[in-house]
Structures are given as C-alpha cells and as structure tokens.
C-alpha cells in the first residue's frame, strides 16, 4: 500500500493572521503617557449626590499562611479576599490599585493570617486610601488531622473558615470569625418509629461569632473552638479513614445521639453562649437528607449583650 500522503498548509505569518481576524494597526497617540499629565477621574471632587458605604475589590485569590493548635500547626492555603472602604459623596471613586498593592506588600513580607496582622492591615489600608474606615474579609479552607477511634489511623479533614475585620477611626475594630464544618446527624424520628435502623446524613454547621476586645488568639485558637462546638454536639464526627471496627463505633455513636437540625443549632448555641470571649453569634445547620431530595435547615442568632 502507498503511504498516506500528508498535505501541508501554507499559513500566513502570525501578524497577518491577527489582521485576518480583526487586529488593526495602532492609531495616532495624542493623550499623555506620563502619569502626572494623565486625567485622574477617581480623585475628582464634586457633589456626586450619595456617600458609598463600601467600594473596593472582591474574590481576590491569594496564598496565605495560617497557624493552628491542631496539626498541621502551620499550613499554606488559599485566601479569598474582599477589600473595601467607604467614600463620601464628594469623591468620584476609590483608588482600586492600592488594595492589591498593599496585599502583595504583605505577601512579600510573609503574610501570616492572624487577627493581629489583619487588624494592622485594615488600619493601614484606611490610611493608604485616605479614608476613615476599611473592611477586610478573607475566607479559606483550614485543614486538620483526624484520627479514627479504634484503629488510630490519621487522615486530613477540612473546614471552611473566614475572618472579617472592620476598622473605623472612631470605634476602632469590629471582629467576626466564621467556620463551617461537616458532621453526621441521625434522625430521632426515624429511630423512634422504626423497628430497626434510622436514616442518617451529612450536615453542615455554619457559625459566625463576634469576638470581644479582650480576645487573645495566643491563648485560644478560635477555629478549633468553633469546630469543637459543632462536632461535639453532632450525632457523630466525620472521619477521613475508617476501618470496620472504627465504622462500628461511629455508627453506634450516631445511633446513640440522634439529632434534628433544631437540636443541633440549640446545642451549638449553648456552647457558643458559654464562650466568654463571644459577644454575639449565629448558627445555621443544613442536613442533606438521605431520604428526601430537599435539605432540612435551621438557624438562630443571639446577642449576649441583650441578656
């Protein structure tokens, strides 16, 4: 048989290909190229009718270093940042580049994400923007080791955490931290009415707490405290590795501790209420029902200052 003959295309060069698909030659340049000669629309001062509560950038992905009392004690993860400040009605806009400029400067100096650093960052950002306030919210996956109850095999779990720091020149700082962790729940109704077994499922517990001014992160890891509030009140904890003896323990533990979503939010709320450094909190639980297409949900918010 004759070998297959390959026909080679003759292609135009790259510049001609670009022209073929719509690229054009640069036109005449009449506007200044020097920064000092350029128009500065963002810093225009007029009456623009309304103050703006928050303007800035969101969904900024950046590598961060976090510390934990649980293993691994130091880890690199991905932070998703929202960075904003207010502007008054006499300002056209904010200086967007200054947000990412400061974030990268902190990265170059070794950004360890803790409350002390974020407070310093927020105050400096307000100063850099020449505004009276600024707010930073950063969310990130936090990884921690979990050991199985019988075989004592260790694997890695994770929860989603976030920090929100608001700064203004009058009231200084307002700090909220959040954590969303996964648990096992077993239905009390199913257990009560069935001759044997009961349906169970994964649940998501999301907690947001406001920290008081005396909170000391060198003494308490808020991530571990919130995780414990969620997991210790569940039917059972989630494990990355389970051998058969482990699975027996976890399954029986869930059967012995049935929980509705209503039970979860109340029990978690009780733990958060007892934390002396928490002034206000909210709890949300979502169960991915194993016998329904819908989820079961419950939530509550409590302000301890109103006691």
TrEMBL record:
GO terms for molecular function: GTP cyclohydrolase I activity. Keywords: Hydrolase. Gene3D superfamilies: Urate Oxidase. It comes from the Bacteria. InterPro entries: GTP_cyclohydrolase_FolE2, GTP_cyclohydrolase_FolE2/MptA. The keyword ATP-binding does not apply. The record marks 187 as: May be catalytically important. This is GTP cyclohydrolase FolE2. The gene is folE2.
């Amino acid at each position: 048989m004759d070998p297959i003959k390959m026909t080679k295309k003759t292609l135009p060069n790259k510049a001609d290909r670009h022209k073929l698909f719509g690229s054009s030659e640069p036109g005449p340049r009449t506007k200044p190229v020097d920064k000092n000669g350029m128009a500065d629309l963002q810093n225009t001062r007029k009456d623009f009718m309304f103050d703006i509560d928050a303007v800035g950038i969101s969904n900024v992905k950046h590598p961060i270093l976090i510390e934990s009392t649980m293993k691994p004690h130091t880890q690199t993860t991905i932070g998703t940042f929202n960075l904003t400040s207010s502007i008054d009605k006499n300002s056209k806009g904010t200086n967007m580049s200054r947000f990412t400029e400061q974030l990268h400067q902190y990265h170059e100096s070794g950004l360890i994400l803790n409350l002390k650093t974020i407070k310093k960052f927020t105050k400096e950002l307000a100063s850099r923007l020449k505004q009276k306030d600024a707010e930073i919210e950063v969310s990130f996956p936090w990884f921690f080791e979990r050991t199985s109850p019988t075989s004592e095999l260790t694997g890695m779990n994770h929860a989603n955490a976030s920090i929100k720091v608001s700064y203004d020149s009058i009231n200084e700082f307002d700090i909220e931290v959040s954590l969303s962790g996964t648990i096992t729940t077993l239905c009390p109704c199913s257990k009560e009415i069935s001759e044997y077994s009961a349906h169970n499922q994964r649940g998501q517990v999301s907690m947001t707490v406001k920290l008081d001014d005396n909170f000391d992160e060198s003494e308490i890891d808020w991530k571990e405290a919130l995780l414990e509030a969620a997991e210790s009140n569940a039917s059972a904890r989630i494990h990355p590795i389970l051998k058969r003896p482990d699975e027996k323990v976890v399954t029986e533990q869930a059967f012995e501790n049935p929980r509705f979503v209503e039970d979860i939010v109340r029990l978690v709320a009780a733990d958060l209420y007892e934390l002396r450094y928490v002034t206000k909190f909210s709890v949300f639980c979502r169960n991915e029902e194993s016998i329904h297409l819908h989820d079961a949900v419950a939530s509550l918010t409590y302000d301890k200052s109103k006691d």
